[in-house]
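Q: Predict the assembly, please.
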Amino acid sequence: MAQRNTWQRERVREALADAPGFVSAQALHALLRDENTGIGLATVYRALAGLAAQGDADSLQSPDGEALYRACTSTGHHHHLICRSCGRTVEIEATDVEQWAHDTAEKHGFTRAEHVVDIFGVCATCTAAAENERAGD
Amino acid sequence: MAQRNTWQRERVREALADAPGFVSAQALHALLRDENTGIGLATVYRALAGLAAQGDADSLQSPDGEALYRACTSTGHHHHLICRSCGRTVEIEATDVEQWAHDTAEKHGFTRAEHVVDIFGVCATCTAAAENERAGD
DNA sequence: CCCTGAGTTGATAACGATTATCAGGATGCT
DNA sequence: AGCATCCTGATAATCGTTATCAACTCAGGG
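A: Predicted assembly structure:
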Protein backbone atom coordinates (compact mmCIF):
# COMPACT_ATOMS: atom_id res chain seq x y z
CA MET A 1 0.00 0.00 0.00
CA ALA A 2 1.32 3.40 -0.80
CA GLN A 3 -0.72 5.70 1.37
CA ARG A 4 -1.64 5.26 4.99
CA ASN A 5 -4.30 7.01 7.03
CA THR A 6 -2.97 8.98 9.93
CA TRP A 7 -4.70 11.41 12.23
CA GLN A 8 -2.05 13.97 11.33
CA ARG A 9 -3.02 14.04 7.70
CA GLU A 10 -6.67 14.25 8.66
CA ARG A 11 -5.90 17.04 11.05
CA VAL A 12 -4.16 19.06 8.40
CA ARG A 13 -7.00 18.53 6.01
CA GLU A 14 -9.49 19.72 8.61
CA ALA A 15 -7.46 22.72 9.62
CA LEU A 16 -7.11 23.67 5.99
CA ALA A 17 -10.84 23.34 5.47
CA ASP A 18 -11.51 25.44 8.57
CA ALA A 19 -9.30 28.27 7.45
CA PRO A 20 -11.28 31.08 5.85
CA GLY A 21 -8.76 31.56 3.10
CA PHE A 22 -5.18 30.94 2.18
CA VAL A 23 -2.86 30.04 5.00
CA SER A 24 0.84 29.43 5.09
CA ALA A 25 2.25 26.09 6.13
CA GLN A 26 3.84 27.80 9.09
CA ALA A 27 0.56 29.31 10.24
CA LEU A 28 -1.16 25.97 9.88
CA HIS A 29 1.51 24.30 11.91
CA ALA A 30 1.22 26.87 14.68
CA LEU A 31 -2.53 26.42 14.62
CA LEU A 32 -2.32 22.67 14.95
CA ARG A 33 0.25 22.85 17.66
CA ASP A 34 -2.10 25.01 19.70
CA GLU A 35 -4.79 22.37 19.56
CA ASN A 36 -2.66 19.97 21.61
CA THR A 37 -1.32 17.80 18.86
CA GLY A 38 2.42 17.69 18.90
CA ILE A 39 2.38 17.60 15.16
CA GLY A 40 5.68 18.29 13.47
CA LEU A 41 6.39 21.03 11.04
CA ALA A 42 7.76 18.63 8.48
CA THR A 43 4.58 16.60 8.65
CA VAL A 44 2.46 19.64 7.94
CA TYR A 45 4.57 20.42 4.92
CA ARG A 46 4.31 16.84 3.72
CA ALA A 47 0.56 16.68 4.22
CA LEU A 48 0.12 19.98 2.45
CA ALA A 49 2.24 18.90 -0.48
CA GLY A 50 0.22 15.71 -0.67
CA LEU A 51 -3.09 17.52 -0.65
CA ALA A 52 -1.89 19.88 -3.31
CA ALA A 53 -0.71 16.99 -5.45
CA GLN A 54 -4.07 15.28 -5.15
CA GLY A 55 -5.84 18.46 -6.15
CA ASP A 56 -7.54 18.77 -2.78
CA ALA A 57 -5.66 21.97 -2.09
CA ASP A 58 -4.54 24.93 -4.08
CA SER A 59 -1.25 26.67 -3.57
CA LEU A 60 0.12 30.02 -4.54
CA GLN A 61 3.08 32.20 -3.70
CA SER A 62 2.44 35.15 -1.45
CA PRO A 63 4.15 38.40 -2.42
CA ASP A 64 6.79 37.79 0.21
CA GLY A 65 7.70 34.41 -1.12
CA GLU A 66 5.74 32.25 1.26
CA ALA A 67 3.72 29.37 -0.10
CA LEU A 68 0.05 29.64 0.76
CA TYR A 69 -2.42 26.78 0.68
CA ARG A 70 -6.16 26.52 0.65
CA ALA A 71 -8.67 23.71 0.57
CA CYS A 72 -10.39 23.88 -2.76
CA THR A 73 -13.99 22.92 -3.10
CA SER A 74 -14.36 23.23 -6.80
CA THR A 75 -12.12 20.78 -8.52
CA GLY A 76 -12.13 22.64 -11.80
CA HIS A 77 -9.91 25.47 -12.82
CA HIS A 78 -10.71 28.71 -11.07
CA HIS A 79 -9.17 31.80 -9.57
CA HIS A 80 -9.18 33.61 -6.29
CA LEU A 81 -10.12 36.94 -4.84
CA ILE A 82 -8.13 37.24 -1.67
CA CYS A 83 -8.42 39.70 1.18
CA ARG A 84 -5.02 41.14 1.88
CA SER A 85 -6.00 41.81 5.44
CA CYS A 86 -7.89 38.80 6.79
CA GLY A 87 -7.08 36.20 4.18
CA ARG A 88 -10.69 35.50 3.31
CA THR A 89 -10.93 34.03 -0.13
CA VAL A 90 -13.62 33.96 -2.76
CA GLU A 91 -13.39 31.51 -5.58
CA ILE A 92 -14.19 33.12 -8.87
CA GLU A 93 -14.69 31.89 -12.34
CA ALA A 94 -13.40 33.80 -15.24
CA THR A 95 -14.38 32.23 -18.48
CA ASP A 96 -13.60 35.40 -20.39
CA VAL A 97 -10.18 35.62 -18.88
CA GLU A 98 -9.47 32.00 -19.65
CA GLN A 99 -10.33 32.70 -23.23
CA TRP A 100 -8.29 35.85 -23.31
CA ALA A 101 -5.27 34.13 -21.80
CA HIS A 102 -5.49 31.34 -24.29
CA ASP A 103 -5.91 33.67 -27.24
CA THR A 104 -3.12 35.93 -26.15
CA ALA A 105 -0.71 33.07 -25.72
CA GLU A 106 -1.63 31.67 -29.08
CA LYS A 107 -1.32 35.01 -30.80
CA HIS A 108 2.30 35.17 -29.70
CA GLY A 109 3.01 31.61 -30.70
CA PHE A 110 3.09 30.29 -27.18
CA THR A 111 1.91 26.79 -26.45
CA ARG A 112 1.02 24.95 -23.27
CA ALA A 113 -0.21 28.15 -21.74
CA GLU A 114 -1.06 28.31 -18.09
CA HIS A 115 -1.95 31.45 -16.30
CA VAL A 116 -1.86 32.94 -12.89
CA VAL A 117 -4.80 35.19 -12.24
CA ASP A 118 -5.46 36.32 -8.72
CA ILE A 119 -6.93 39.46 -7.30
CA PHE A 120 -5.76 40.80 -3.98
CA GLY A 121 -7.84 43.41 -2.24
CA VAL A 122 -9.39 44.29 1.08
CA CYS A 123 -12.77 42.78 1.76
CA ALA A 124 -15.77 44.81 2.86
CA THR A 125 -15.36 43.91 6.52
CA CYS A 126 -11.71 44.81 6.65
CA THR A 127 -12.31 47.97 4.67
CA ALA A 128 -14.88 49.06 7.25
CA ALA A 129 -12.53 48.19 10.07
CA ALA A 130 -9.79 50.22 8.45
CA GLU A 131 -12.13 53.18 8.10
CA ASN A 132 -12.90 53.07 11.80
CA GLU A 133 -9.24 53.06 12.64
CA ARG A 134 -8.60 55.98 10.38
CA ALA A 135 -11.27 57.92 12.21
CA GLY A 136 -9.04 57.83 15.25
CA ASP A 137 -6.17 59.67 13.55
CA MET B 1 21.25 64.07 -1.32
CA ALA B 2 19.45 60.78 -1.14
CA GLN B 3 20.67 58.88 -4.15
CA ARG B 4 24.17 58.55 -5.44
CA ASN B 5 25.40 57.34 -8.80
CA THR B 6 27.59 54.30 -8.63
CA TRP B 7 28.88 52.09 -11.38
CA GLN B 8 27.39 49.12 -9.53
CA ARG B 9 23.87 50.41 -9.86
CA GLU B 10 24.47 51.21 -13.51
CA ARG B 11 25.86 47.75 -14.06
CA VAL B 12 22.82 46.11 -12.58
CA ARG B 13 20.55 48.25 -14.68
CA GLU B 14 22.44 47.27 -17.82
CA ALA B 15 22.54 43.59 -16.99
CA LEU B 16 18.84 43.66 -16.34
CA ALA B 17 18.19 45.39 -19.63
CA ASP B 18 20.36 42.84 -21.44
CA ALA B 19 18.51 39.88 -20.04
CA PRO B 20 15.90 38.53 -22.46
CA GLY B 21 13.36 37.97 -19.75
CA PHE B 22 12.97 37.60 -16.05
CA VAL B 23 16.09 36.83 -14.08
CA SER B 24 16.65 36.07 -10.44
CA ALA B 25 18.81 38.27 -8.29
CA GLN B 26 21.16 35.36 -7.83
CA ALA B 27 21.52 34.80 -11.55
CA LEU B 28 22.15 38.48 -12.09
CA HIS B 29 24.80 38.49 -9.42
CA ALA B 30 26.53 35.48 -10.95
CA LEU B 31 26.39 37.18 -14.33
CA LEU B 32 27.94 40.38 -13.06
CA ARG B 33 30.61 38.59 -11.14
CA ASP B 34 31.68 36.85 -14.34
CA GLU B 35 32.20 40.16 -16.07
CA ASN B 36 35.09 41.03 -13.72
CA THR B 37 33.30 43.27 -11.32
CA GLY B 38 33.65 42.13 -7.78
CA ILE B 39 30.15 43.27 -7.16
CA GLY B 40 28.56 42.03 -3.97
CA LEU B 41 25.39 40.03 -3.72
CA ALA B 42 23.86 42.43 -1.26
CA THR B 43 24.47 45.28 -3.66
CA VAL B 44 22.66 43.49 -6.44
CA TYR B 45 19.70 42.93 -4.18
CA ARG B 46 19.73 46.58 -3.14
CA ALA B 47 19.99 47.85 -6.69
CA LEU B 48 17.21 45.55 -7.79
CA ALA B 49 14.94 46.63 -4.97
CA GLY B 50 15.69 50.24 -5.86
CA LEU B 51 14.90 49.74 -9.53
CA ALA B 52 11.69 47.96 -8.66
CA ALA B 53 10.71 50.77 -6.31
CA GLN B 54 11.32 53.36 -9.02
CA GLY B 55 9.23 51.38 -11.44
CA ASP B 56 12.20 50.73 -13.71
CA ALA B 57 11.91 47.06 -13.04
CA ASP B 58 9.15 44.61 -12.51
CA SER B 59 9.28 41.76 -10.07
CA LEU B 60 7.33 38.59 -9.65
CA GLN B 61 7.58 35.37 -7.69
CA SER B 62 8.67 32.31 -9.58
CA PRO B 63 6.77 29.11 -8.77
CA ASP B 64 9.62 27.97 -6.55
CA GLY B 65 9.59 31.08 -4.48
CA GLU B 66 12.42 32.97 -6.05
CA ALA B 67 11.96 36.63 -6.84
CA LEU B 68 12.44 37.39 -10.52
CA TYR B 69 13.15 40.82 -11.95
CA ARG B 70 12.94 42.36 -15.36
CA ALA B 71 13.64 45.74 -16.84
CA CYS B 72 10.34 47.21 -17.88
CA THR B 73 10.08 49.50 -20.84
CA SER B 74 6.50 50.53 -20.52
CA THR B 75 6.01 52.40 -17.32
CA GLY B 76 2.31 51.80 -17.16
CA HIS B 77 0.53 48.84 -15.71
CA HIS B 78 0.83 45.74 -17.82
CA HIS B 79 1.22 42.00 -17.66
CA HIS B 80 3.57 39.38 -18.97
CA LEU B 81 3.58 36.38 -21.20
CA ILE B 82 6.56 34.37 -20.13
CA CYS B 83 8.26 31.44 -21.80
CA ARG B 84 8.65 28.70 -19.26
CA SER B 85 11.58 27.32 -21.16
CA CYS B 86 13.81 30.20 -22.24
CA GLY B 87 12.45 33.00 -20.07
CA ARG B 88 11.62 35.25 -22.98
CA THR B 89 8.96 37.72 -22.00
CA VAL B 90 6.34 39.60 -23.92
CA GLU B 91 4.64 42.55 -22.34
CA ILE B 92 0.94 42.48 -22.89
CA GLU B 93 -1.86 44.85 -22.23
CA ALA B 94 -5.13 43.62 -20.95
CA THR B 95 -7.61 46.41 -20.67
CA ASP B 96 -10.48 43.98 -20.53
CA VAL B 97 -8.89 42.00 -17.78
CA GLU B 98 -8.19 45.15 -15.80
CA GLN B 99 -11.81 46.01 -16.05
CA TRP B 100 -12.91 42.53 -15.16
CA ALA B 101 -10.61 42.40 -12.14
CA HIS B 102 -11.88 45.71 -10.92
CA ASP B 103 -15.51 44.78 -11.41
CA THR B 104 -15.13 41.41 -9.78
CA ALA B 105 -13.44 42.86 -6.75
CA GLU B 106 -16.10 45.51 -6.43
CA LYS B 107 -18.90 43.03 -6.83
CA HIS B 108 -17.63 41.19 -3.77
CA GLY B 109 -17.16 44.34 -1.76
CA PHE B 110 -13.41 44.34 -2.03
CA THR B 111 -11.53 47.60 -2.17
CA ARG B 112 -7.97 48.52 -3.08
CA ALA B 113 -7.86 45.71 -5.56
CA GLU B 114 -4.64 44.74 -7.22
CA HIS B 115 -4.23 41.77 -9.43
CA VAL B 116 -1.64 39.34 -10.57
CA VAL B 117 -2.14 38.27 -14.12
CA ASP B 118 0.63 36.42 -15.85
CA ILE B 119 0.64 33.79 -18.51
CA PHE B 120 3.31 31.13 -18.57
CA GLY B 121 3.76 29.09 -21.72
CA VAL B 122 6.33 27.84 -24.14
CA CYS B 123 7.24 30.20 -26.93
CA ALA B 124 7.22 29.22 -30.58
CA THR B 125 10.97 28.68 -30.70
CA CYS B 126 11.06 26.46 -27.68
CA THR B 127 8.00 24.57 -28.81
CA ALA B 128 9.74 23.78 -32.08
CA ALA B 129 12.87 22.73 -30.24
CA ALA B 130 10.83 20.45 -28.04
CA GLU B 131 9.19 18.92 -31.09
CA ASN B 132 12.57 18.13 -32.54
CA GLU B 133 13.63 16.45 -29.36
CA ARG B 134 10.48 14.42 -29.22
CA ALA B 135 11.23 13.18 -32.71
CA GLY B 136 14.21 11.39 -31.26
CA ASP B 137 12.16 9.25 -28.90
C1' DC C 1 -4.01 -11.04 19.69
C1' DC C 2 0.83 -10.53 18.46
C1' DC C 3 4.29 -10.14 14.87
C1' DT C 4 6.24 -8.12 11.00
C1' DG C 5 7.15 -4.75 7.39
C1' DA C 6 6.57 -0.68 5.17
C1' DG C 7 4.98 3.95 5.17
C1' DT C 8 5.02 7.92 8.66
C1' DT C 9 6.36 10.92 12.03
C1' DG C 10 8.98 14.51 14.32
C1' DA C 11 13.43 16.77 15.75
C1' DT C 12 17.08 18.55 13.70
C1' DA C 13 20.35 19.61 10.24
C1' DA C 14 20.88 21.25 5.74
C1' DC C 15 19.68 24.44 2.24
C1' DG C 16 18.74 28.40 -0.59
C1' DA C 17 17.07 33.00 -0.89
C1' DT C 18 16.86 37.38 1.20
C1' DT C 19 17.92 40.94 4.71
C1' DA C 20 20.56 43.15 8.41
C1' DT C 21 25.03 44.54 10.15
C1' DC C 22 29.11 47.22 10.09
C1' DA C 23 33.72 48.80 8.95
C1' DG C 24 35.88 50.71 5.04
C1' DG C 25 35.52 53.12 0.57
C1' DA C 26 33.53 56.17 -2.83
C1' DT C 27 30.81 60.27 -4.11
C1' DG C 28 29.13 64.96 -4.35
C1' DC C 29 29.45 69.38 -2.55
C1' DT C 30 32.17 73.15 -0.86
C1' DA D 1 41.44 68.83 -1.36
C1' DG D 2 38.36 68.08 2.69
C1' DC D 3 34.44 66.35 4.63
C1' DA D 4 30.03 64.35 5.67
C1' DT D 5 27.12 61.13 3.79
C1' DC D 6 25.75 57.39 1.39
C1' DC D 7 27.15 53.12 -0.60
C1' DT D 8 29.58 48.85 -0.90
C1' DG D 9 30.77 44.16 0.16
C1' DA D 10 31.69 40.13 3.30
C1' DT D 11 29.54 37.91 6.75
C1' DA D 12 26.13 36.65 9.91
C1' DA D 13 21.45 36.25 10.74
C1' DT D 14 16.74 35.16 9.38
C1' DC D 15 13.09 32.82 7.26
C1' DG D 16 10.77 29.26 4.75
C1' DT D 17 11.29 24.79 2.98
C1' DT D 18 13.33 20.20 2.25
C1' DA D 19 16.22 16.19 3.44
C1' DT D 20 17.78 12.96 6.95
C1' DC D 21 17.10 9.29 10.07
C1' DA D 22 15.86 6.69 14.12
C1' DA D 23 11.66 5.64 16.41
C1' DC D 24 6.84 4.71 15.76
C1' DT D 25 2.43 3.33 13.98
C1' DC D 26 -0.84 1.29 10.87
C1' DA D 27 -2.38 -2.78 8.17
C1' DG D 28 -2.48 -7.41 7.35
C1' DG D 29 -0.98 -12.43 8.25
C1' DG D 30 -0.32 -16.11 11.46
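The radius of gyration of chain B is 18 Å. Chain B has five helices and six strands.
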